[in-house]
Fold these 2 entries.
Entry 1:
Amino acid sequence: MDYLFNEQQKMIQELSRKIAQEKIKPVAAKYDESEEFAWDIMKIIAESDLFGVYIPEQYGGLGGGITEMCIVTEEFSRACGAIALGFAGTGLGTFPILLYGSDEQKKKYLTRIAKGTVAAFCITEAEAGSDAGSIKTTARREGDYYILNGTKQWITNAGEADVYTVIAMTDKTKGARGATAFIVEKGMKGVEFGQKEKKLGIRASATREVIFTDCKVPKENVIAREGMGFIVAMKTFDSSRPGVAAQAVGIAQGAFDEALSYSRKRVQFGQPISSFQAIQHMLADMATQIEAARALVYATARMIDAGAKNVAKESSMAKLFASDVAMKVTTDAVQIFGGYGYMRDYPVEKYMRDAKITQIYEGTNQIQRNVIAANLIKESIKAE
Amino acid sequence: MASITVILNKCTGCTLCVRSCPFGAITMANKKAVIDMAKCTFCGACVPACKFAAIELRKDAVGTKDLSGYKDVWVFCEQKKGVIQTISFELLGEGKKLAKKLGCKLCAVILGHDIESKIDELAQRGADKIYIVDDPALKAYLDDPYTEVLVSLIEEYKPEIILCGATVIGRSLVSRVAVKVDAGLTADCTGLDIDQKDKLLLQTRPAFGGNIMATIITPNHRPQMATVRHKVMKEAEIHKGHKAEIIRKKYPASVLRSRTSLLDIVEEVEETVNLSEADIIVSGGRGLGGPENFAMIKELAKVLGGAVGSSRAAVDAGWMPYSHQVGQTGKTVCPKLYIACGISGQIQHLIGMQSSKVIVAINKDPDAPIFKVATYGVVGDIFEIVPALTREFKKMLKK
Amino acid sequence: MNIIVCIKQVPNTTDVKIDPVTNTLIRDGVESVINPFDVYAIEEGVRLKERFGGKVTVITMGPPQAESALREAISVGCDEAVLVSDRKFAGSDTWATSYTLSCAIKKLGEFDIILCGKQASDGDTAQVGPGISTHLDIPQVTYVKKIEKIENGKAVVERMTEEGYDILETPMPCLFTVVKEINTPRMPSLKGMMRAKSAQIVKWTAADIDCDPQSIGLDGSPTRVVRIFTPPPRKGGEIIKGDAAQVSQELVQLLKDIVI
């Protein structure tokens, strides 16, 4: 389907596809096995200017938006959903600065990120997953500094990233209104990282705890102002969810590509299995679902780029639908491969393992449904 | 100038010519063939393909120059550190056949320093005449003096045909010589013959990585020069006592000068045999799953006294260094035995190894394209079969 | 430093399929790419520019469509591009091609280094690079795997050989043909792609490059293709069945004569 991308978007798609196919795909299995962060690939992505696609031109980027970020994420994920996360996770860590940062903060950090500095977003804690209101990490004001204490859990890109955007409580008594967003740099005193987590999928992506022990952060590093932390986080997620959805679409497409090509080569009962209707119908369903998910992703991305104010519902829909499609399509791809599909020598089981996380992170799909329903009801009340 | 035209009233739009064109230069427009002159090389493949004689090709008249002064078949014999390379013996073997068909002499040309002792070796391999240029300036190969000396020899003695190995040295040298003496040169031939009617050298070579073969002639220029692929032709037999006429030449410093200077020759000691020289190659691919599993490939290669090859997938994944890559962008090999382990057989790989004499493929995927070229195929787990095979070979070779 | 890189556009062999019925190449839908070996020459040219300053001019002889290969070269850092294209060049063999390119290079003016890939993937001749250096009467080093240093008008390079490598020193201007070991080519950058899109490509015909009309195209080519044919495809052979021990024993018997 033609998504009517403009010239620059088509160029971004062409380049990210080239990098994905020529550079990422050959090493995807290797990094999945070794669970290492693919720094050599990050360097290639940085040199290609792609880290800056969604960063404004005055900060050294290419001036694109969510659509551009989704194009790159989808193409990378088609080759490897984990390596893609080095890029997409940086986007998540960058959005708080992009959306709410001061000009000084943007100058200081966005210019670096556009050149390939990896970033991470830190909100989740052991006891604060979907229930972000129960965050325990605190930030205490002391003169020109805030002192951060607490442990963030399952942070994508943690340890590898240089820039962290962190949500911490500045005033517990105010509940959600007592949270504040900070920019913390790796190397600041009091920032440490936990062991790398062992995961089912996206194994080349680094997931660690980020531990703050009396970490002194200058007050200039507060994003927006004290008490804005939750708004920053929620708006960040509204912008980043299409990225997760694009990752899911890419993973699904990658698995589908493998399944289609295998079904044409694999011969049983004297003919390629693609000639059997049972397989054909599976392929047709998979392709249709992927296209529907993609359409939802780019429609949402366009809406955000056009400046729509309230996009929570649409961005949740995109993430919910695309991630469910990814799980379904990758499972079917394994099925088409039969016994071979279950083997680690063949690429499809990895897509299936990688797909699962898209239903979980940046808000589980159950939370997405809550968001969608809440917005539907709100809209209906407003319409009355 | 040469021209090619489609005679429109004869063209029926049958598209036979479109399929016959190896350069994709013919398309159909309004049910008539149209030749894209930017792509056409006047190779003539379409002319016989057309059942309606609708394509007319006019090539230039042949034989306007007097070429009768050129005679004999020359073989440039490559030496390194005073050792004649085996490719030279292959060329002497092939050159003999051509000389016989032409009723002329087979001549060996050797350049080097302190190489007088090589004369008998070349004579025994069938050379009737040996041109020898012995000078310290020619000790090791350098483009300038080798080119100038060979050019001087050609201009003085006018050979009809010159054969040279398609090696690093051979390809660098004769490419320069051919330009200097205005000769035709065909690279990397795998077949040579003499056209009985015109007494021309028919040079057959693979193109597109061996997917098509082209036969090339040099109708109007002399000498007719060709580089020949290693290990395709049979080495000349040794005839003890066979003598040759020796022509020793000396050249002044102006001919022997070199703009480039050789600072050092570095030989890299490889664990295993040089790939392009190897008679047996054991290769591993993506199916090995990781770099550590190349150990069993190396083990089998060691037992067989062969070299270790790799598919591009395994090189791209960082499991093997590029120097081991077999295929289009790696090395082209033609050993006596090629054992492909866990290699699916992408076309780029097949291009590099499909001229091997015997191919054994071991792969768990019965639909892997490698089986289409394999002499013997085994569908199964390489992790069981390769070690078992190594054991069996050890037993047989008593190692 | 003025660097010239000679490239060729070739069909992407990855895409080339063989028609199982007619046993000929299927050209439909086959994408054209820069000859894989030339990509290393381009990268080396751009690296030399980054080390020593100057500019990289990329040049190709081919049909008008070859312009896309030149734009691709610009997207990875080449500065200027020249397309030498004329119907009069049709039918050129390596002699005529190297002559034509050398005429175009003379027209470009002063240069320090010419870089070529070691050979093209469609013809595999490895003759055009040495041909150009001979027509220009400059020194060459073929199969270069490393440019060690460049100073005082001289370059020290490593030439790959069958046994290892030679270290050679050559005065400039000179021509190198390069092998894959020399570098890892970069990916294009978005900014490079944008520059490539709008870049002006210089286009020269036979009339522009001061060449002898008898030495170009088919007339200037000593060799003639007289026959093109498809070799009979290698037939898949016997499939050996059984467990690991059985197949190993059988294989060893079958291969006995070769191995001993």
Entry 2:
Amino acid sequence: MLTDMMMFILYLAVLLLLAWPFSKYLAKVFTMEKTVLDPVCQPLERLVYRLSAVNPDQEMNWRQYASALIWFNVLGAFAVFLIELVQGALFWNPAGLSGVAPWHLALNTAVSFMTNTNWQAYSGESTMSYFTQMTALTVQNFVSAAVGLSVAAALIRGFTRKTTSAIGNFWVDLVRSIFRVLLPLAIIFTLILVQQGVIQNLDSYLTVHTLEGVEQTIGMGPVASQEAIKILGTNGGGFFNANSAHPFENPTPLSNFLQVISIFLIPTGLVIAFGNIAGDFRQGYAVLAAMLLLFCIMLTGTYLSEAYGNPILANLGIDQPTSMEGKEVRFGIAGSALFATVTTAASCGAVNAMHDSFTPLGGFFPLVQMKLGEVIVGGVGAGFYGMMLFVVLTVFIVGLMVGRTPEYLGKKIEARETKMATLGILLPAVMMLTGSALAAVIEAGTSVVLNPGPHGLSEIVYAFASAAGNNGSAFAGLSANSLFYNLMLALSMLVGRFGVILPVLAIAGSMAEKKTSPPGPGTFPTTGWLFVILLAGIILIVGALTFLPVLTLGPIVEQLLMLQGSMF
Amino acid sequence: MMIVVLTVVTGWIYPLAMTGLAQAVFPNQANGSVMMRNGEPVGSKLIGQNFTSPGYFHSRPSAAGKDGYDGTGSSGSNLGPTNQKLMETAADNVKKVREENGLSVDAPVPADLVLASGSGLDPHISPQAAYIQIERIATERNLAVSEVRQLVERHIEGRQWGFLGEPRINVLELNLALDELK
């Protein structure tokens, strides 16, 4: 218990210690200032611009920015889809895997990786060739994270520029995100992971005779390079089915610790960088404080529930910790609870333990974090811009209470921004609720559920929360590789991604056009603890109003039944 | 065009360069930390295997593949916390562990030895899970209990840096060392 607490505290300390210097670098990348990597990156980037026939000096308004982004994503998803279908005829396929079938699985996967969700209705080691893992999936791991960063950068410009329609150039933001942020970090992280034992090769699967003489075939592949960006880019799509529980993806407690740090590194750095760019670092810290406040509540809840364990199993004569089903010995309760909370706070979705086998409340907190819109630290870029929607909403509500025109960073928040923010918050929520409601009443939705009783409902609800929240983790008992789920969840992922990005870019566009005025006596300060508490409170209230009924029917009821000793 | 250029950079150059670098600097890890005996690979240090004979330390139950520990089918059971099937499986495992190791019918059993791991390939068991198997191993192999106990204790990996992870024992390494004892 004490060592567990120590790990949690050290986790936050190390995270902030790393995120702080990193945020300064990040700020420079998006304000186009000089950075240490210029001598390497500049020539490479110029080459990329020339090959892609892009003019890096041309600024875009929000509509141009959005349309470039959408075309880029459509083409990217199409490329993934095609590669999946024809992988059987291509090289780097030592396991001899054929094209991904059925088509709706390939489509679901393409949408999933393009939207930074990385929901996986397939098992990596028996479905995807090395060629697909690298050329299709690793690429989207990079670019979907870079798209998130780009949108965040555009929104920051919208808040900090005045009387202009220009919010930056999408291609420049995309390329700089990859070359100056994601690639350097991924290269370092890959090497650390390999040192710890993550594999990185193009060999055929290895067959050995075990000590008892049985044949065991072990999956191989270029894992570390994909693992690094899967974590850093808050993607979460595992090379193997068991994701970060697989010893070849996450071999040691140290690799586990570094993975949870890396999931939060860029999102945390970005919030601090926002304060830097806005010229008042307290603006960034206030937003970060609200995020971390909520995160600590969720972590405590998940950890306590898992540590308390399952009384039904305890009755069978099993020692504590009784919630070891689906967990690895090397991570234990604390390492698994921390990973589960981090991965669902940031829309990462990698898992190092099977969430489906968590205690009901242990699964409740991860589920809640996804339902709150993935704004508690959140995904790379996506966490920041999702949170800014809540900031706009908070400022608006406070403005109503005080009776003045709401302002943020010296700019008036008006009807258009409030409408857009509400839209961006509600669209994913509507998708989560209608999707799971539909699935819960039709045969195609309920027939593939693994666990009976209220836990079955949790499986369905978790799937739609994960997809529309662009998280990608699962209550994996649900056999989601069916026509209904592949298509419905693909739709959810699209709504959850672009239903937020487009309103955000619209806000960026309209904010950039506004004038800035100095704060007056009626301005509500967005830096103090009062604002932090209000922001966190509004996130919780919006979430509770939207989701409390379904959460009660799923995990909450199940926890009570488990304590009673009921089984299904 | 942009997507093509970025695909070449992040989809080919990056993973291939990383493969080259990893193979040069950490070849053992990059190729799967394979354990050899008499020049033959017997498994990976990181991938658990099935042990059923009474003379070996047993691994955790595994939901990977049909018979468990399928290195191409990593998976947990995904059974939920109120699922009857989980309780039945766990109860069976508890009974089996008690019988195999000559424990009384109400002796507490370490959780990891009767509940399946998340990957189905967990290479470790907890020290407690090894301790309750010591007497069985000693009897089966005609070894002194103290000798086996010492071997187990030598193989305990503590928490990394004192606070990361849980104390654990690599089952394959322990069993290899056990075979060396004679």
